[in-house]
Design brief:
heterodimer; A: alpha/beta; five-stranded mixed beta sheet; 20 helices; 12 strands; 47% helix; B: mainly alpha; two-stranded antiparallel ribbon; 15 helices; globular
Chain lengths: 431, 318
């Protein structure tokens, strides 16, 4: 008996590890929608404004906010279980667009957009709209734009008598000079090394050399191109020789913390980080910061740009109320207000407005706006290879480049590993 | 709750020295006879709840693992052992199994040994014992997410406290989480920090409950301290130790939270435990059926190891 009981207890404890997804549908009142957001500068900027929407529209918005990965888990749980408990969610179409679209998770917005007289979807630049489109359907409405930019410390550059790098070759030589002139006391360049996060900052090294993730057919990976090997080699060298200790575990959190603490001279990161780096409460370098475009290669400066969007769940039972919210949150008036909190506006009318440009009152913000504006015409919207297996493909790239950073594989071996790893994942797009 | 029922069982069933004669024992056992009339209404709710919360998910997961469930909620039908075959031919599965077993063995051995030493110290009647006991529990009752975030800050190679302390005594900085050969040890360190006090508490309670007579007899016979501990203390403690080890085993084999917070299985999969791998498959790669196969494998592993301990214990009891 005792043995059975012990076994039973073990079984019960083991049972706890199996995912039991519950969470019934809390439909709520008919004029109430559920919004799930990621902890993000846009979320912090929009939350205080939601009260205005509720008063104007009579729709009550219930907000849930999570850290980015936890938000994805929550959103996926809702979608996989076809729950109507979530109406609107923050979406990253560059990452999960094709994957979610194939599973019919998104409510296509085209008919809503064309039915809204004042919405003016043409106001969004074409690159931004393309980023929100899968199979000719608009799956989300753009809420911001962000791009990989190069931050640098003006005070240190003056001290070392350096100018910010404008080409890929100068990027490495500047990093070497910083290492040399600071006697190794300052990390020359903070950049990403964590496998799934790395493609965002690695992509520009590839694109600036004129190489795309895949060949024209979109199913053959491009890592048999010698220029891709060069890109891996440069990224790995920068990370290994001039990056922070333990760089393979770093993403924007660690890079920004290093930069804000004054331990790094340059940082390759999203343009979003400007808000935390210029906050004197959390940043020691708020007054010494400069921003320049991603350095140019043979194909010019081609950074990665992406937009977050607002999507409506196809399982929502309050799609009209949900669209009302999306229309309001991505309309020109609200985007104008959001710029006051440092959100780069995706709408051209807002980005070019007098009210916005005159609000950019520091040298840094002016530089930042110029860099971001030019990124919207020169940048690539492909953060990683496009496909239903996008997250998995990014991990394959990140793992292989990580091995090269650690010196456990040569750049050529890493490229081969990516080439072989991506092929079956890209093939999934066909099915 | 689990602990209590466990130790109750062992107390009533364990034939300890000076146990009652067989007849008396049988009578005592009849008192908890599960087939007794009238007991059903009291047991039924618990049985139903257990069935709904434990058995249903297990069988549903089993069903998922042999079918092809798509992320859009449809199921393309039976696959048989296809998911398991794919799993066995994936190098990442074998890597994650290796990582899981590494963490299990290292953490369990260190936590048990340190727990014995600490538990002994805590069982002594010294002033301030209760305050010390309370403080010891803090790591175990802190949410693992908070523990992970805290250690992530401590182990930051440049800004973290760990390397600043090492630097103060002239030791070169350690790449705690960014080096694939060190990261698993760092994760083990966090687990040991978090759970050794828990082991020590169970063990100290066990030590304090031990009968005094055998130790007095050993002292009269002139046995040395070590011999007394090894030949009398440890064997008497074994039931308590087994329970403590069993509890840690189940937790360690399904190692997830601190890894997920601190490294997400990286760098280059060096800390990718089976459970983290399964999570990735389900929620990031959107392969629910493959993830179910991984979880069932994990379940078999947990039951296997727990069963092994139970069997060893029952063999010794004979």
């Amino acid at each position: 008996m005792r043995r059975y009981l012990t076994a039973g207890v073990a079984l019960a404890m083991a049972g706890g590890l199996l995912v039991g997804c519950g969470g019934g549908d809390s439909a709520g009142a008919s004029n109430e929608i559920n919004l799930i957001m990621s902890n993000h500068p846009w979320q912090r900027a929009i939350e205080p404004l939601i009260g205005d929407f509720e008063r104007e529209s009579g729709v009550k918005v219930r907000v849930q906010t999570f850290a980015e990965q936890q938000m994805r888990d929550k959103v996926q749980l809702n979608l996989q279980s076809r729950s109507s408990a979530m109406d609107v969610f923050m979406a990253l179409p560059s990452r999960e667009g094709p994957q979610f679209a194939r599973s019919n998770y998104y409510e296509p917005l085209d008919s809503y957009v064309s039915g809204a007289a004042d919405y003016d979807v043409e106001d969004f630049p074409e690159a931004v709209r393309t980023g929100m489109t899968v199979d000719d359907k608009q799956i989300a409405a753009p809420i911001n734009v962000e791009a990989v930019v190069l931050y640098y410390r003006k005070d240190l550059f003056r001290e070392y008598n350096l100018t910010p790098p404008t080409t890929l070759a100068e990027l490495t030589s500047t990093a070497a000079a910083i290492k040399d002139r600071s006697n190794g006391q300052v990390t020359p360049l903070a950049l990403r090394g964590q496998s799934t996060a790395l493609p965002f900052t690695f992509g520009p090294f590839l694109h600036a050399r004129g190489v795309e993730w895949t060949k024209e057919d979109k199913v053959t990976p491009n890592f048999d191109d010698p220029r891709a090997v060069e890109a891996i080699d440069q990224y790995a060298t920068l990370a290994r020789e001039y990056g922070p200790d333990g760089v393979v575990n770093n993403t924007f959190t660690q890079s920004s913390a290093l930069m804000a603490a004054g331990n790094a001279a340059m940082m390759l990161e999203s343009s979003n980080e400007v808000s935390s780096l210029t906050d004197p409460g959390s940043s020691k370098v708020a007054d010494d910061l400069g921003v320049v475009s991603f350095p140019a290669g043979e194909a010019g400066s081609r950074t990665t740009i992406l937009s977050w969007g607002l999507a409506i769940s196809s399982f929502s039972q309050k799609k009209d109320a949900a669209w009302k919210f999306v229309e309001w949150a991505t309309g020109a008036e609200v985007q104008q207000k959001l710029t006051e909190s440092g959100i780069a506006p995706p709408r051209s009318s807002v980005a070019g407005s007098e009210a916005y440009t005159s609000s950019l009152d520091t040298e840094l913000l002016k530089e930042w706006n110029e860099v971001l504006t030019s990124a919207q015409t020169t940048g690539s919207t492909e953060v990683g290879p496009v496909g239903v297996a996008a997250p998995e493909m990014r991990k394959i790239i990140g793992d292989a480049v990580g091995l090269a950073i650690l010196g456990r594989a040569s750049a050529a071996e890493a490229a081969k590993q990516i080439q072989d790893g991506l092929a079956p994942q890209l093939a999934k797009n066909e099915g | 709750m689990v602990t209590t029922s466990q130790s109750d069982v062992s107390r009533s069933g364990q034939p300890e020295r000076g146990a009652p004669p067989p007849a008396q024992r049988r009578r005592r056992r009849r008192r908890v006879d599960p087939t007794a009339r009238g007991i059903l209404p009291f047991v039924l709710p618990a049985l139903l709840a257990t069935g709904a919360l434990v058995l249903v998910p297990i069988f549903y997961t089993l069903w998922l693992s042999i079918t092809d469930r798509r992320p859009d909620g449809t199921n393309a039908g039976l696959l048989g052992f296809g998911n398991y075959r794919e799993m066995l031919s994936t190098p990442e599965f074998w890597n994650s199994l290796r990582v899981t077993i590494f963490l299990f063995v290292v953490c369990l051995v260190v936590e048990t040994l340190l727990g014995l030493v600490l538990g002994y110290v805590m069982s002594l009647d010294v002033p301030g014992r209760r305050i010390f006991q309370g403080m010891m529990l803090i790591p175990a009752i802190t949410a693992s997410v908070a523990v992970g975030l805290l250690w992530l800050l401590i182990m930051d190679p440049t800004l973290g406290a760990a390397n600043q302390l090492l630097g103060a005594i002239g030791i070169d900085p350690v790449i705690w989480l960014g080096d694939p050969s060190i990261a698993p040890w760092s994760i083990a360190l966090v687990d040991i920090w978090q759970w050794t006090p828990f082991m020590a508490l169970i063990i100290s309670a066990g030590i304090r409950a031990l009968p005094e007579e055998p130790f007095e007899a050993a002292a009269i016979d002139g046995a040395s301290g070590w011999r007394t501990a090894w030949h009398i203390g440890l064997p008497l403690l074994r039931p308590v130790l087994t329970v403590a080890i069993l509890l840690r085993t189940v937790d360690l084999v399904r190692f997830f939270d601190t890894v997920y917070i601190m490294t997400q299985g990286g760098p280059v999969n060096a800390t990718n435990t089976l459970n983290v791998y399964g999570y990735r498959a389900a929620f990031i790669d959107q392969a629910p059926s493959y993830a179910a196969a991984l979880q069932i494998t994990l379940l078999v592993l947990v039951i296997g190891i727990a069963g092994l301990f139970t069997w060893l214990r029952s063999r010794e009891a004979k």
